[in-house]
Structure formats: structure tokens, C-alpha cells
Amino acid sequence: MGDEGWRNVCRLEDLREGSPVLVKAGDDEVCVVLLEGSVHAVGNKCSHYECPINEGLLLGHVVTCKCHDARFDLRTGKVLSPPALNDLPVYPVRVSDGEVLVGPVEKPRFPKPEGTDPRTFLIVGGGAAGNAAAETLRREGFAGRIVMATAEADLPYDRPNLSKEFMSGDAKPEWMPLRSAKFYANQRIEVLSETRVASIDAGKKSVVLSTGQTLSYDKALLATGGAPRKLPVPGGDGEGCFQLRSFADARLISEAAGAARKAVLIGAGFIGMELASSLRKRGLEVTVVSPESLPLAGLLGDRVASVLRTRHEKDGVTFASGVSVVQISGRQGSKTITLSDGRRLEADFIVCGIGAQPVVEYLQGTGIVENGAVPVNPQLRTRHADLFAAGDIAVVPDTRSGTGVRIEHWVVAERQGQHAARSMLGSDAPYIEVPFFWTRQTGASLKYVGFARRWDEVAVRGDAEKGKFLAGYYSGGKLLAAATMGLSNELTAVKVMMERNTPLPPARLADESVDLQKLARG
Description:
This protein is of the alpha/beta class and 522 residues long. The chain is built from ten helices and 37 strands. The radius of gyration is 24 Å and the shape is globular.
């Protein structure tokens, strides 16, 4: 074997089984790890947001990125779960006289299925679940026709970034698409933009599109996501009143912000609080109006929610809490918001973020909609054998709570899309993922796993007020969810234990002498 392009990066004795090490190979940062006696080397930047792979939690041969929970196989560099979409670069390794050498990088290539398949798989929706499903079908070897119908004009894009880096101006518009038009063409994924499904005949396995075209399918995935709830007050849909769901919405808000001095945000959920942080970064005066006294308290509890509010207040955000909006008047650049306590706020524009509702109107007559959403089985199949559902519209069985849950988070939708694709190909594996989401506000990242509608105890490790903590939400002594700032690998460890149904009493979670990562490794 020749030495051209090979570099000495470390000694074998520097490596410990299962402990990733960061090395340099020329200008490249490489993660080197010893697994079951063999040395492996991959690029050290997560293919999602380039977080360092060596700092993630490694369990067996799977590493979980500490930033946004993407998982990779360190033996092969293969991506195992979103939000990352691409494999890691791989470096060939050889060991000579106790020295570890890596060869020229092998850049990842998206696989192309071989052969042919007469079937047509339809994906309704081009968001997180729909795009993940389309890509997974190809990764799993499906060689048939894939049609993705999306109501939007844009190709699938990084929706979580709309209220974060894109709105603050740190992310350029051209960074937003998940893939290029060339990618979809190369993978023979037909993207029908600005095309809705008007109706579905589940018996005949056909749909009527908004274009008037009828399309037959062998199997279909319903992944149409949600639509923002409208503010039911006079003037709530007037000029200068925005909602944020789509890339098109974000462009309009960003344009308005560029000429504005003051903004009022209605709703203190994720959209409202992320927008507050982003618009403050752009220098706008921001007021958040909500009936709750603390943002996200219903999800995070009063202590963590109080930390978030304090951080935003230090960042210059003003809160109008315990009130609602009763009327909006004026035009863009000069809006007046009348509150339930009689106060009036002035703003250049308004963004309303009071939640979303599943887009299911096109499913009328199918018999699969229940209480405004679509219940599915553990394989994400609806009541019709060849119809599957994922993402914001799907009510999915939750083995931990014993109930069906519908969760509106990006990574959850991606992983459900991925799972649904495999079910469409014949897999019987149940969906058992513990939900994960993240939010970035005031320069800090908060992450959450699990799902808890209510709890009777919150166990806290670390110091929430100092912004470095892990909180566990319990009901009857059972851990239902956890949240963190600054202890990402510990959160990953907790998530793994939840997936395994490993008990973690409140006292152990709160005890900083207990090594949660070691517990997760078994």
C-alpha cells in the first residue's frame, strides 16, 4: 500500500475503547475511535450544523451529536437519524508500528437504487416528514416512482431556522433549502410544487390534485403538517399582521423587520420567543403579549420558564402578560394593539404565534380523521392499509404513557417520515422514538426529550438560574420528559434510558454524583 495522501495522526496507545479522539489530518478535523479492537476515522463535523462529533455521546458504535440529536454509525460514517441528512466523510485507517495513519478522505455519496420497481409511492407534503420519507425510500433501495406533492412554491427547507438564524440575519436565504433541485432530479423524486391534494379515494388508491390531475398510487404517506391558527379579533388579519409557518412567511416578516423599529409578538410559545430573540438581535424593540405570565410554563414548569423570561428581559424584551388582544387597527408601519386590560401598544408590525392545527381538510370522506387529526398504528399506518401518516397530523401510540400523542416538532416529524418509509417498504418494526426538540433563544440552546402533559414532581440537576441544568418531569415517580441547558450528553443518556424503559428515580437524576452517561452505557 502506497503512502501518498496518508497521514500519521496519533499512536494506537493514545486510543481507549469507545472514547472518540479529535485529531488533525492536514487541515481536516477527524474523529478517531477504537471500537472492538478496530480503529475507525470519520469527519468530525456533524452534517447538520457542523457540531463536533467527538463531543457527542457514544454508545456502542452509535454516536449522538450533542447539538441536535443526530445519530451516526462511527464504523461507517452512515447517518442513522435526522436532523442530519448526509453521511460523514470516512478516512481509511491503517496501523503500522503502533502508529495510526489515515488515508485520503472518502466523501459521502447518496446511494442510488438499482433495478426497477413498477410501484408508485405518493408523499403528500414537502415538509420534515415528507422529505425524510422520500430520502429514506431511496436509501432503503426503493427503485419505483416517488411523487412528492407540496402546496409550497419552495423546495423542502430548514423550517426550524425560519424563526432563528434566518430571522436574525445570520442565515442567508440560499442556505435554507435542504436539497437542491438537482438532488431531487438525480434521485428521481418528482416534486410537484404549489400542488395540493384536493381529495383521496382510499379504496381506488388515487388522488385528485389541485391541478385537476388524477394520480394513482400503490402506497401513500400523508404528511401535510399544520396551519397557523388565526387570531380571532377585529383587525387580526389586516395589513402588517403576519404569521410564521412557511419560508414565504419568513421572507415577508424579515422584509418588514428591515424597515421597522417596533414589533409586537402575540403568543409566548416557541415561535414567539424565538422571534423575540431574533428580532432583538436585529435591534428592534419587542413586546410579547400572552395570557400566561411565564413563557412555555405549561411545558417546562415555572422554574425553567422563569429562567427563560429573565433571560429575555435582560435581552431587552418587554412582556405584556396575563392579557389578551381584543382589537388591532392601523396599517403596516403604524399598528395599534388594544389589550384586554385597556392598554394600547404601538408597533410597526405584528406576528401572531398562537399555535397550529393539522391540515386534514382534504381527507374528508376517507374515514381516517378523528378529532381533527389522523390516528396511526405503531407502524404509522392509518385505518387504510396502504395509507400512512407522519408529522403534525399523526396521532402516534406512545408506549411510555399508553396513549396516542401528536407532537409538532421538526425532528419528530423527520423521524416519523423515516419510519413510515420503512413501513411502506414492509417493515413491521414499531415506532418507539422518544421525542426530541430544541429551541435557541437569547444565545442559549434548550433541549427537551419525551412528552409530559402534566407532572407532579420536577427533579433538577445543576443550577437552572445559571443556565446549566437538567430537569426531569415525573408523574407518580415515572420519568416522562426532561429538559436541559448545557448538559446535552446527560440529556441524551436520559433519552436512551427512557427508550429502554430503564427506571431513573428523581433522586438519582438530581444527584450530580451519579454518572448518567455511564448508566446509559450499561
